[in-house]
Amino acid sequence: MTTTDLDEPARSRFSAHTTEFTLAGIAALGYVVLAATTHGSVLSGDTITAILRFLAVPMMVGLSQMAVLAVGQMNLSVGVLTGFTAMASAWLMVQVGLPAWLAVAGGVLIGAGIGLVNGLIVVFTRINGFVVTLATMTIIDGLRFGVHGTGTYQHYSAGLVALGQGAVLGVPDVFILAVLVAVAVAVFFRRAALGRQLLASGGNPFAARLSGVSNDRSLVIAHLISGLLAGVAGVITVALSGSVNATVGDDLLLPSFAAPIIGGVALAGGVVSVVGTCLAALIVRLVDVAQAQYSINPEWVDLIIGAVVLGAVLVTQLRLGRRRRGR
Amino acid sequence: MTQHTPTLSPERSELPSPPARARALPFWANPRLGLLVVIVVLVVVFAAARPAFLNVGLTIVPMQSDLSVFVVVGLAQLAALSLGHMNLAIGPTAAFAMFAMGWACQDLHAPLLVGLLFGLAVGGLVGAAAGWTVATTGVNSFVVTLALNFALLGVVSLLYSGVGDGVAFSVHPAGMDTLRDNTFSDYCVGNVCGPPVPLVVPIAVVAAVIVAILYRRSRLGREILMTGANVKAAELSAIPTHRRIVQAHLLSGLLAGLAGFLLAVDNGAFSADIGSQFLLPSFLGPILGGTALAGGAVSVLGTVLGATLTEVVQTGLNLLQFQVEKSKIYIGIVLLLALSLDRARHVIAHRRGGRPA
Amino acid sequence: MTFVAEKLVKTFPGVRALDGATLELAPGSVHALLGENGAGKSTLIKIITGVYQPDGGRIVLPDGREARFGGPHDAQRAGIGVVHQERNLIPAFSVAENIALSAVPKRLGFVDRTAMRDIARRCLAEFDVRLDVDAPVHTLSVAQMQLVEIAKALAVDSNVLLLDEPTASLTAEEADHLFTVVRRLRAANRSVVLVSHKLEEVFAVADTVTVLRDGRSIAEARPLADYTRDQIVDLMVGRTHQVVELTRSDVDVTATPALELSGVDTAAGHRDVSLAVRPGEIVGMYGLVGAGRSELARAILGLDRITAGTVRVHGAPVRIGSVRDAVHDHRIGYVTENRKEEGVFLEQPLTRNIAVTVWRRIARLGMIRRRDEEDLVRTYADRLGMRIAGPAQLAGQLSGGNQQKLSLAKWLAADCDILVIDEPTVGIDVRTRAAFHDLIAGLAGTGVAILLISSDLPEMITMADRILVMSDYRIVGEVANDHRYEPTSQAVIRMIHAATPASA
User: Fold this and answer.
1) Which of B273, B282, C151, C365 is most buried, judging by how many CB atoms fall within 10 Å of its CB?
2) Interface touch B154/A303, C-beta < 8 Å
3) Terminal Cα distance for chain A, rounded
């Protein structure tokens, strides 16, 4: 018998989870502090419901970005794509007269379709994904205004809006939907063979290729999923707000990066964390709530998020450095 | 030390090597020339569709002012790209630098030039801080400048509401209005000077020339490019890579400040929303102009032409009554086409064995 | 039923890596593939395993079909397994997932983790290795990763298994277990190809041998029993096994050493390293992969911390904090072993590649004149016999030999009088190699002090005045070099074996 037993399996398995534990801890702590300092006003059912309701879209865009980060890519069109699919869905209901469920499906499919196009362009032209999505972001930015100009769609399906405003035992319907989607994404990357292939392509493209994984296919699928999730974010927005216009998605791009980065997703690819991304989105949301509760100038929020993003990455960097030096 | 190292005759020392491969691409395939051709074609097309395109006062003069801003914005990004990095915080850096300048002019009663230098210094400092963070921690510049972008957005708004009078300074230091309103023809006798060129244009031109000289001729520029080309090899070749990274980012921040100044002159005020539209154009100019995202190779001329192309397309579409928002569709398509053509050119060049220009 | 790779040809820009190499494998045998660095072994393996496509020749599979591999997976499906020299693992995945990567057990589109773990445990058990199959691979040591690579190859049921330097990071005991598996595969009528620099291993386990030299097969599928070890080395090395007589001027042994280390410890793990290189002397540092030689070079150049002892340059104690200090203050240059990644800037022109170390000197008011750079290129291209198209040519377009000269040129331009040269002739053809040796000897003749790091024993014995032997981050001895291959090489190898730990 050789002596090549790995003697610290437990520790190594936990290292991936420490980020998630830390974030959960921060979120919990933050909530407790909020509750304590506002004399419990954030503990009211209504506040919690509101917190969760407006968490759905940030979760989706964060996961959308995470999907391409998994293969080491970036998707700059996430924000505007959310807006475009929202407009497209509304258009389908208002102008084409489709029933809500069909329009919702249409919106998601359009998102997936555009994501697919992004992926195909990246693979066929071999141009850097950052640049490709910079270009498609510009195009889709304009396309949002091509649907209904600067006008607003409202008074579409009452059923859909009711769903957007509805809640089950205080948990908003849209949040439940977002959680279900997040679970599906998590299962995909953790268990599905296809999801593991994406992570293999992101983690070590050459090794993946040697084992028969098609890196091109991984790229295309990652972009497709990203577009699909942006589409989900778009239709949730339609349900949530009761009215949409072409400016939807303007301020979603940077948060779409902040959530996965804070959540511990590697920019280089190969590592994802659904839990981390969602917890990070929650933390950002809590900061928003705090801002409203304490009437803090909203600009502080941006400042804090910037600091947190930097802090999160620094911590990851330090941990990587320590592990490498220990060799 | 006398070098008597034996000179080796090439024949003995080498297997026959492939034919010399430094054949540059034919003149017409030069990407910068390609851009110029496209620009000229578009100008002709737009002018034919809308003669107002060539109206000096209505179109050409404002176009030059806008172009000056976007050329400098492109140069700011070019400085980061030269390292193979990115600067996502150009907009807020410009706003922050201009806050500093506005405050200096308003509360310290500084004259225009002193205020400008102060603003540029602040911009440079912000850039240097970002560069130092990237170089020391090894964190990706994308993330660092993303975080900086967030942080500065907040800081700038806070500062304006706290220190300034709301969202803008109303101070107009002597000379600012002149810069905005006048063109060279206002200073010339008769028609000697030719077409009116806004006074902000030479500022942008000088900036471009200085950056070009820096990267083409100076030791500093070369060492920055080598750091961008291969940071490990640069380190091993005795280049102080840490210092160069800081310096390149400092340049980026400084140019961001300058772009902010040119915009403030255009708008007539130092306001908090300076720079809010800088992110996309900062990439369009350099990328269209052939500056590599990977670092090690920049083209100032290309950036100028790229910014010109963008500006021409935008103005032309505007005149053709395209809504501002919708014209973005075409800008994006232009970018994709330009990139695909560039890619195709690269592939063809590779196959012919020529040197990529 | 044999597997044949026949008369394979493969050219890369400037280099004919394979020039009609043939490899013939009989089932139920262990076949050694030998050759020096740059002989073409890795290229041959990459063609057989589908990573490269050959420019000429063909591959015939055991069932008689001619093979056309579109990629690595095709080769695998044809029954060819491989353990490459470099690690190719997915860092975030577990040991089990890496082992099963090419044929992931699935159930309805989902990964079957239990089946995966079983496969992994089975493969590891085949050569008596116990690892936590759920551990993420990035937490393993280099040796453990190599074990995972081997298990990965075993997971695929191959007719032909190629092992490229499989025991490089393994202990003797682990290597033994591996060879038990090899023998078992042979008994099961498989073919195993073993590429190794360790001739003792080869002679212990292989039946037949093919020797590659300059991209051609010199001995093809000959029974190993027909040769002695020395005859094999003769075949591998060819002409240059005759140690070249280089005209070397005598070194003044009383002179102050140009570079001297006394009792140096480093953060990388070196302990009590002492050496001295006098002006005009070539001191060799020999050792196996992982002995710590390049790491010592890095420490000397300020890239790693020296935690104890003194470094002296021309007698004066110095603290070198960065490569900049080393080059500009002490005129020490380092020709890296990794020229493509660290030695040259592939996408930059020759002018910048050579002038990079001297810009500070040739700049006037911070500006560089292109003419000055071009003059430098012409000067050094001449002096080093570089074949170039023009000063603006990109470094990546040069052949390997010329690139290596380029990576040396910048140190000559910087007027270095101490040079640390790390593996100068890896992947370079024989003729250029001889020219390089002349070059280095010539430099020493002008008074440059040279510390030569090499794993190539004939090269070492040709060039060095003295040979230091390094093992496990310590200097274990010094061999005086009388430039006679037999006694000197034996002395060195004996010293290495005495120093190598016998068990994990």
Assistant:
1) B282
2) yes
3) 24
Chain C: touching chains (3 or more CB pairs < 8 Å) = A, B
What pLDDT digit, counting tens, does each position of C326-338 carry? 999 999 999 998 8
Please write the tens of the pLDDT for every residue from C412-461: 999 999 999 998 887 676 677 788 888 899 899 899 999 999 887 878 88
Contacts of B15 in chain C (CB under 8 A): 14-16, 399, 401, 429, 431-432
**Cβ A2–C173 below 8 Å, yes or no?**
yes
Of C211, C240, C269, which residue constitutes the final position of a domain? C240
Q: What is the model's pTM?
A: 0.83
Residue C341 resides in a domain: no
Q: What is the DSSP code (8-state) at residue C394?
A: B
Is residue B22's pLDDT more than 50?
A: no
Same domain, C429 and C404: no
Q: Is the dihedral angle over the CA atoms B155, B160, B162, B164 positive or is it negative?
A: positive
B158 touching chain A per CB within 8 A? yes
- The answer to whether the CB atoms of B147 and A306 lie below 8 A apart is yes
What long-range pairs does B32-37 form, CB within 8 A, spacing at least 24?
A: B32/B289, B32/B290, B32/B299, B32/B301, B32/B302, B32/B305, B34/B341, B35/B288, B35/B289, B35/B302, B35/B305, B35/B306, B35/B308, B35/B309, B35/B338, B36/B305
pLDDT, averaged across chain B: 82
Q: Is A275 helix (H, G, I), strand (E, B) or coil?
A: helix
> Quick one: CA dihedral A8, A13, A14, A19, positive or negative?
positive
How many domains, in total, are found in chain C? Answer: 3
Interchain CB contact of A208 with C (< 8 Å): yes
Note whether C130 contacts A4, CB cutoff 8 Å.
Answer: yes
A106 token code pair: 């249409």
Neighboring chains of B (3 or more beta-carbon pairs < 8 A): A, C
pLDDT of residue B29: 55
B333·A128 Cβ contact <8 A: no
Co-location of C447 and C383 in the same domain: no
| Residue among A1, A206, A211 minimizing CB distance to C101 | A211
Residues 33-52 in C contacting A (C-alpha not used; CB under 8 Å): 51
Tell me whether 0.90 is exceeded by the ipTM: no
| Cβ-defined contact of C129 to A6 (cutoff 8 Å) | no
Its domain, for residue C204, covers 3-240
Task: Give the integer Cα–Cα distance in Å for C482 and C478.
Answer: 13
Put simply, whether C125 touches A (Cβ < 8 Å) is: no
CA-CA distance, C449 to B171, in Å (whole number)? 67
Q: How many alpha carbons fall within 13 Å on the CB side of residue B88?
A: 20
User: Who contacts C293 (Cβ-Cβ below 8 Å, separation ≥6)?
Assistant: C285, C287, C422, C453, C470
What length is written for chain B?
Answer: 357
The rounded distance, in Å, linking the Cα atoms of C301 and C318 is 11
Could you give phi then psi for residue C277, rounded to 5 degrees?
-125, 120
For residue B148, the chain A residues in CB contact (below 8 A) are 306, 310
Residues of chain C with pLDDT under 50: 240-241, 502-504
**Could you tell me the domains of chain B?**
30-178+198-351 (1.10.3470)
To the nearest whole percent, how much of chain C has pLDDT over 70? Answer: 95
Please compute the mean of the pLDDT values over residues B320-328 and round it to a whole number.
78
Chain A environment of B329 (Cβ under 8 Å): 138-139, 141-143, 146
φ, ψ of residue B118 in degrees (nearest 5): -60, -45
Contact B147 A307 (CB under 8 A): yes
Question: In chain A, what are the domains?
Answer: 44-319 (1.10.3470)
* Residue in C closest to B18 by C-alpha: C14
**Cα gap C440→C405, rounded to integer Å:** 11
Strands C259-266 and C332-335: unpaired
Residue B46 and residue B319 in contact, taking contact as beta carbons nearer than 8 Å: yes
